[in-house]
Write a structure and sequence with these properties.
Length: 1091
């Protein structure tokens, strides 16, 4: 009975716990009920996850309709969302931005990773690629989605360290962390050890992720036997150590090591040859030379290889050598841009298997004639051999390549005509035969290639007419036939190609008129019919092609006026109507262009060599983007000050004035901001006076004075006002045009003097002031010293001074040439001889005084050389510290100072750690020893330091050397040469130094010779477990090292193998072995990487 009562007696705290527990159960049931209610409404979506998805959507940039379907209760039917049919949990979330080919992700609006994402605990698939996360860090909480099998964070503007907690995703099979290859790369990982936990990983893409400090990357990735795809292109991979692990990536089918910065050695190629299942290998842009023979052997072992990419590499050897053992299953071969890689085309084709689908040999030293056997490669889809030395004709058998989609034989010495059976290539989308020596006509059968999108035949010797059948190519986007000998008219059937964007038939012998139906090509943006014999008027229908941004009809025989419809071409960037017979006034064009809603885009306007009349309209100044203006050789008249009228009438803008954003040429535009790159420099213009860089108004009938407002065009490079009727003087403020390169004011009626400040125009290299009424003296100095041609000033009878005859009014001021000649005639030669004599005497006295003291005074000589040595060592240390990289494969120790003094450093060392530490500093301060050290810390200094700490605590047990052992000091040098790199990185950290001394010099090992000491040291280091973390070696073997040490030390080593020198009793005054070595500057040169 008592037991029952005790059972019923419950403490107050227990009651509260039960109440809380019951409340939690009820709340949980309520949440489940809510989810069940929505499930019962006819959908599988859980309400809690639906709310999480809505929160995620709120932080995603979505300008279009990507997430427009995210409405209603059934989230499982939303775009990019998938749920488990049984449980209703969201298992798939695809939020990748659809514009995957946009190279500027930063132009996309910013997104954020909403924390609600991590409430979707059952996600198996997550894709956030191609969004703009504004260089945020990769969220650590992604590791909480432990069911993930697919994770894609590629090209999403993530930044910082890739969290190692991603190693918790034990079910992950596909991991894509690819980054955009823009420098500097800010997404990085310093250690890939977390990858070894991903036991199911099959796909890994870390292209363009900075892995420069992941020194053990190959060993760690090699621990993933399930890996099938490994993409590490542009990842700044460290150098692979000479000792490679046993190949464990037996499932690997695709490997991308492009842009690997180090030499791909023969041992590395042999290691790769074990990938028997490898189908895709990319070693592009590996800029270190590797041997073609070794590559051939490795490729011969890859029997399943289907795709080989070796773009822009440096391979020593022949193409045929590389391919002689290649797999017979090869389908894709890309050897572009290897420049000097030679090979004969017939030999190459004879090696390759007939099932080849892709062959690219562009920019190589490929030579010979294309053989008829090319027709045997009927599976080819891509064939490009541009920029090579291929000769001869295109074989007729090319018509058998019915699957061909791209053919590029540009920039070769190909002769003959285009084969008639090219019309059989009905799948061909791109045909490039530009800049060869092809003759004959364009085959009519080319109109049968209905898939053709790009046709480039420019720069050849093609004759005949443009086939009308080209109008059947409805998919054509670009048609470039310029630079041939085509005759006849532009066929009207061209207008049927409604998708055409680019049409260039310039530099031919075409006649007739421009087709009036040209406006049917509504997508046309580039039209060039210049340098032909076209006649008639410019069709007004061109003004209906609103996408047009480039129009060149120059150098023809066109007549009539500029169509008023051109004023509708608000997107027109370049307009060239020069060298025709066009009449009318310029106002017809500009009246409508000035009314463009967003302002006219016109940047270059040339109407030179026509019959234009009237005056220059004032609205020309409203072309805010104009940079080049050429109205030369017309009949324009009147003042051209009118084009600046809008500037003189303009008022200061305010922020609330919309006109500030689009002002006239030369006006104040505070809202404008533009970047212009010229000659390698970029300039930012925030308040633009004008973008105009070139004005040519020569050979017209312009009158009046040169307007002062012209001097506001501060970026003007070229100005030509010659052959007009200008009067007045040259403006004094013309020197404000500081960027002026060429100035031509010839053949006018200008008066007055030449402004003296013209000499301040440092860039002025061309000047013509001839045939005016200028007077006075020609300015001297600066740029005018280069204008020594009298023709520059000819026709100005009142001008005088160099290079013209001297001014009679002032004989005292004469040109520099005359002054120089007079000086030579008045005895200046004697003064020059005396000057040279005094210089020679001073040099001789100073030279022998210096060297006499150096020869006679030994102490001064020694002091000077020691000072030079100290300065050299100090500079060496500063440069090593500043530019040294500890993440590379070949570390160089950074010295702490100059050469140590003999008297201070060569004293008795106290026993114990302090003595060893002083010895460390002594050795590391001497350049001759440490600069030959080659050592690679694979795991970084942290891992190595941890090993040393373990040695102190006794957790590592190994034979050790005792301090009292009679060990010669040369042994200490050997130890430090082998392991000094790690020590010098933390010289001020006594823990590391002390740990080394205790590990290596506290023991009872007996040694009798230098060989024994070295053997013990190497064995001890290996037993300590340091060797797996340090790749070090002697180039040949231990005996070879000893020979070099003995040769370097000379007779000082004779006693070392016997009694040796006590470590506690070093020689004083530099008489010991070490002091003598330092004094002699011993140089140990046989250290290298362990093979």
């Amino acid at each position: 009975m008592t037991l029952n009562w005790d059972f019923m007696v419950i403490s107050s705290s227990s009651k509260h716990a039960i109440v809380i527990f019951v409340a939690l159960v009820l709340l949980s049931n309520r949440a489940n009920c809510d989810d069940s209610l929505h499930a019962n409404k006819g959908n599988n979506c859980l309400e809690s996850e639906r709310r999480a998805l809505i929160a995620i959507k709120s932080d995603m940039y979505d300008p279009g309709e990507r997430l427009s379907s995210w409405t209603g209760y059934d989230c499982c039917k939303w775009r990019g969302v998938a749920c488990d049919n049984l449980t209703g949990y969201v298992t798939r979330l695809d939020l990748h931005y659809p514009d995957e080919y946009n190279p500027w992700v930063e132009s996309i609006g910013a997104s954020k990773v909403n924390p609600s994402l991590f409430e979707l605990k059952h996600l198996r698939y997550l894709d956030l690629s191609f969004n703009n996360f504004s260089y945020a860090h990769v969220p650590h909480m992604i590791a909480s989605l432990v069911h993930l099998e697919y994770l894609n964070l590629s090209n999403a503007c993530f930044d910082g360290l890739i969290p190692p907690v991603l190693g918790n995703l034990s079910h992950i099979q596909h991991l894509d962390l690819r980054n955009y290859c823009t420098y500097p790369i800010t997404l990085f990982s310093n250690n890939l050890s977390w990858l070894s936990n991903l036991n199911s990983l099959q796909y890994l893409d870390m292209s363009c992720v900075n892995l420069s400090k992941a020194t053990n990357w190959l060993h760690q990735i090699n621990l993933i036997p399930t890996l099938q795809v490994l993409l590490l292109g542009g990842a700044s991979l460290p150098r692979v150590p000479p000792s490679l692990p046993t190949f464990n990536l037996t499932s690997l089918t695709m490997l991308d090591l492009s842009q690997y910065e180090w030499n791909i050695s023969a041992s590395m190629l042999r290691w790769l040859s074990n990938a028997s299942n490898l189908e895709h290998l990319d070693l592009s842009k590996c800029m270190r030379v590797f041997d073609a023979e070794a590559l051939s052997v490795a490729l011969g072992a890859l029997h399943n290889l289907r795709k080989l990419v070796l773009v822009e590499t440096q391979i020593a050897g022949q193409v045929s050598t590389i391919l002689k053992n290649v797999s017979r299953m090869l389908q894709h071969l890309d050897l572009q841009w290897n420049f000097f890689l030679p090979g004969e085309i017939s030999t190459i084709l004879s090696i390759l298997p007939h099932q080849l689908e892709f062959l690219a040999l562009d920019m190589n030293d490929i030579y010979g004639r294309i053989p008829e056997m090319l027709g045997n490669y009927t599976s080819l889809r891509h064939l490009s051999m541009s920029y090579t030395r291929i000769t001869g004709e295109i074989p007729r058998t090319i018509g058998k390549l019915i699957h061909l989609e791209l053919l590029d034989l540009s920039i070769n010495d190909i002769t003959g005509e285009m084969p008639l059976n090219v019309g059989n290539l009905t799948n061909l989308e791109e045909l490039y035969l530009s800049e060869t020596n092809i003759t004959g006509s364009i085959p009519e059968s080319l109109g049968n290639v209905i898939s053709l999108k790009y046709l480039n035949l420019f720069g050849n010797k093609i004759t005949g007419e443009i086939p009308k059948t080209l109008g059947s190519l409805q998919n054509m986007l670009q048609l470039d036939l310029h630079g041939n000998f085509l005759t006849g008219q532009i066929p009207t059937t061209i207008a049927r190609i409604s998708n055409l964007c680019y049409l260039d038939v310039s530099e031919n012998r075409l006649t007739g008129e421009i087709p009036i139906t040209i406006d049917r090509i509504s997508n046309l943006s580039y039209l060039d019919v210049s340098n032909n014999y076209l006649t008639g008027e410019i069709p007004t229908t061109i003004g209906r092609i609103f996408n047009l941004w480039y129009l060149d009809v120059s150098e023809n025989n066109l007549i009539g006026e500029i169509p008023k419809t051109f004023g509708r071409l608000c997107n027109l960037w370049m307009l060239d109507l020069s060298l025709n017979n066009i009449i009318g006034e310029l106002a017809n064009l500009l009246d409508d262009l000035s009314n463009c809603p967003q302002g006219a885009a016109l940047s270059s306007l040339s109407i030179a060599d026509n019959n234009m009349s009237g005056s220059i309209p004032s609205n020309l100044g409203l072309l805010a983007h104009l940079q080049e203006l050429d109205l030369s050789s017309n009949s324009l008249q009147g003042h051209f000050r009118a084009m600046f009228q809008d500037y003189t009438n303009s008022k200061p803008c305010h922020d609330n004035n919309l006109q500030c954003a689009r002002g006239p040429m030369g006006s104040y535009r505070p809202k404008d901001k533009i970047l212009i790159t010229a000659k390698g420099s970029t300039y930012e213009y925030i308040i633009i006076l004008s973008l105009v860089t070139s004005i040519d108004l020569s050979h017209n009938n312009l009158s009046g004075e040169i307007p002062n407002e012209l001097m506001m065009l501060r970026d003007l490079h070229f100005l030509s006002l010659s052959n007009n009727h200008l009067t007045g003087t040259i403006p004094e403020n013309i020197a404000d045009l500081t960027e002026l390169f060429s100035l031509d004011l010839s053949m006018n009626n200008l008066t007055g003097t030449i402004p003296s400040n013209l000499s301040a125009l440092n860039f002025l290299s061309h000047l013509n002031l001839s045939f005016n009424n200028l007077s006075g003296r020609i300015p001297t100095g600066n740029q005018f010293l280069t204008f020594d041609d009298p023709a520059i000033y000819a026709g100005n009878k009142d001008l005088c001074g160099w290079p013209l005859p001297e001014c009679p009014s002032d004989e005292a001021q004469r040109g520099p040439l005359h002054a120089r000649d007079d000086d030579d005639g008045n005895g200046s030669k004697l003064e020059k001889v005396l000057d040279y004599a005094f210089i020679a005497m001073g040099f001789i006295v100073g030279f022998w005084t210096y060297w006499g003291v150096m020869i006679m005074k030994k102490s001064i000589r020694i002091a000077l050389f020691q000072m030079v040595d100290r300065i050299y060592d100090w500079i060496y240390v500063q440069l090593a510290v500043k530019f040294g990289s500890y993440g590379s494969d070949n570390y160089r120790a950074d010295q702490e100072g100059g050469q140590c003094g003999r008297e201070d450093d060569a004293q008795d060392f106290p026993p114990g750690p302090d003595g060893f530490k002083l010895l460390v500093k002594l050795v590391l301060s001497h350049r001759h020893f440490v600069e030959h050290l080659e050592l690679l810390v694979v795991d970084g200094p942290e891992s190595l330091e941890e090993l040393f700490r373990e040695g102190i605590t006794g957790r590592l047990q190994a034979p050790q050397l005792h301090q009292s052992t009679r060990v010669p000091r040369i042994v200490a040098f050997v130890v430090l040469l082998l392991l000094g790199e790690a020590l010098q990185r933390d010289l001020e950290d006594e823990l590391v130094v002390v740990s080394f001394s205790e590990v290596l010099f506290e023991g009872s090992a007996e040694v009798e010779s230098l060989e024994d000491v070295l053997e013990v040291i190497l064995d001890e280091v290996e037993e300590l477990g340091v060797l797996p973390h340090i790749a070090l070696a002697v180039e040949d073997d231990l005996d070879h090292l000893l020979v070099h040490l003995k040769e370097a030390a000379g007779d000082l080593l004779e006693g070392i193998e016997g009694e040796g020198t006590d470590l506690d009793a070093v020689g004083e005054g530099g008489d010991g072995a070490t002091g003598a070595l330092l004094e002699r500057g011993v140089e140990v040169s046989s250290f290298g990487s362990r093979r």
